[in-house]
Fold each of these.
Amino acid sequence: MSDRKLAGQFFDAAIGLLRRVRDEDAGDIEAAGVLIADTVADGGRLFAFGAGHSSLAAQDVVYRAGGLALMNLLAVPGVVGVDVMPATLGSALERVDGLASAVLDSSPLRAGDVLVIISLSGRNALPVEMAMNARALGVKVIGVTSVAYASETKSRHVSGTYLKDHCDIVLDSKIAVGDAELTLETIEAPFAPASTVVTTALLQAVMATAAGALADRGIEPPLLRSGNVDGGHEWNGRVMTEYGDRIFYRR
């Protein structure tokens, strides 16, 4: 089989998943966007968290040209990204009970805020406890996960529950357990993960919905512009000054 044919198969698989989330998650995407718009309008703050490769989608909506300036990254040392050494430490930390409580206790999250939690499997202690404890604080939680894991894997949290069980809104990425879209007789393991493509698209659809919902209310969405276009820095400086008390990645 040619490499070109495999590439085409991956694109087809990713496009198929994107079509599914577009059609099947439309109501939840709308609800998530409206919740974010409500939070912005009511003076709340926005945060996103993901561990390991799930952090890529969280980072994609923070300090992003064309994105909402108010979206902040809730970072957990050793968990966000694969730059920690050894890389396997990040996976181990996701299973540590109590870590989420320590993170939230030292974070600026408060009642009335929104926290987007991204976890493909939704089965580890960290995202489950993060959602549980955030909601106990009065924070609204949007979970981005693959619901299939809840029926095909065992929870690693003492409660036996998953991220999806502790969210105000759940966005289902439709990713199959194992996150690999392709197989080949000559390759023993499945390959070509699509979760980052789909999860990132899901969240950008939510942000687009939120921007539109704010505009419909006569509120200018606090959007950032690219620093690589003329006037971008000046625009961003104005937005950051106006909303400085809700932007934490500058401190």
Note: The two ends are 51 Å apart (CA to CA).
Amino acid sequence: MLNEVAGLRVPTGRAAEAARLVCTEYADDALYHHSVRSYFFGAAWARARGLDFDSELLYVSALLHDMGLTAPFDSHRIAFEEAGGHLARVFTAGLGWPTERRDRAAEIIVLHMRDEVAPEVDVESRLLQEGTSADVTGTGLEEYDPEFARALVTAYPRLGFGASFVGLFRDQAERKPDCAAAGFFTRGAAERTLAHPLEQS
């Protein structure tokens, strides 16, 4: 694991390490790399705009945000991001986080699949939205330094992430047609994911 990319570092400490362990144990390498890249894209977006944010909170949320797509944590009743939010609340309870901070981790994960959040209202939620959008569909990718994007993919290769992710979302959409993942296909996001510039390179 590389802890630094283009001058950006992942947070250290018990919570960050525990989140990394959970992600590596339950997600495949492509999904794990996506989770880390989402953190770095979000952190880079904040750096470019001079935004302060809670790096531990963002990192933990980024590492757990897609756990609801994995078989052990998938829910047949609720959307994957909601399942991931519940997992985050349980996970952070084990870390001894206070209720308000546990709720924030869950909220960030749920909101990454919702409408855009203004950074002045909730900076960490916006950063995860920006990070996941850049990494999944390439939305906003042109705002990043190409050297940064290349360094990030070198550190955490995509490993066929696009096709794998589309497959995971298709499964969610078929079983839960009212969930946000179903809108991924009606908006043409699947095609953009498969044609992601970093996927092609």
Note: The longest helix spans residues 29-49.
Amino acid sequence: MTKKVLVVDDESSIVSAIAYALRREGYEVETANDGEEALVKVASFHPQVMILDVMMPRLDGYGVCRRLEDREDIGIILLTVKNDIVDKIVGLEMGADDYMTKPFEIRELLARVKALMRRVEKSSPPPDEQKNQAIVNGNLRIHVAHRTVTVKEERLDLTPKEFDLLTILMSNPERVYTRDDLLDRVWGMEYAGGTRTVDIHIQRLRKKIGDTDQQKLQTVYGIGYKASAPEPGGSA
């Protein structure tokens, strides 16, 4: 399977350096110099990973994330000159998977691309024998093989991380997971972000599944999160 990476930055020297390093590692690479061009390339190139600068003309990195909020199977690494935790949280809230602050080491970026690519590839559908498996909790249904989630038979648009996080919690109702547990299981040991990432994704999931009263995804204060037990009558 060809591993595709889209590099988006308005500084041509940075784009060239990153693209060269990625191609040496065997990746197929396309580039873009602004957010609008990036969206066009996403539609035609179908990358698994996108390296995306925040500060760009026409449409910045945050704007690209917003336009791709309903994306599936694209991992996003944000590049930013700001080292403010607020800026990083904003990026994660908009669906980015990781971030790096400029200037950065190319070797570290390559390592993060490799780790993110593995996580995206693991999002591929499981073997055929699991094709009918579903997890049901009230009006929420997770179709494991197809990696889809429906609420009241309406399909939700989840990112790969949101799907993985929801599936882990719903597969083991009433089991309490610490934030570190979830960070390890969903993002992997290579992830350099903090546990705040888990909180942000839980907030996004609650909004998407309509869990405003937090009955399905429950906070265990001082520890982490758990999913409520399925409602009576729910089955796969």
Note: The helical segments are 12-24, 35-45, 61-67, 85-93, 106-121, 160-171, 179-187, 196-209.
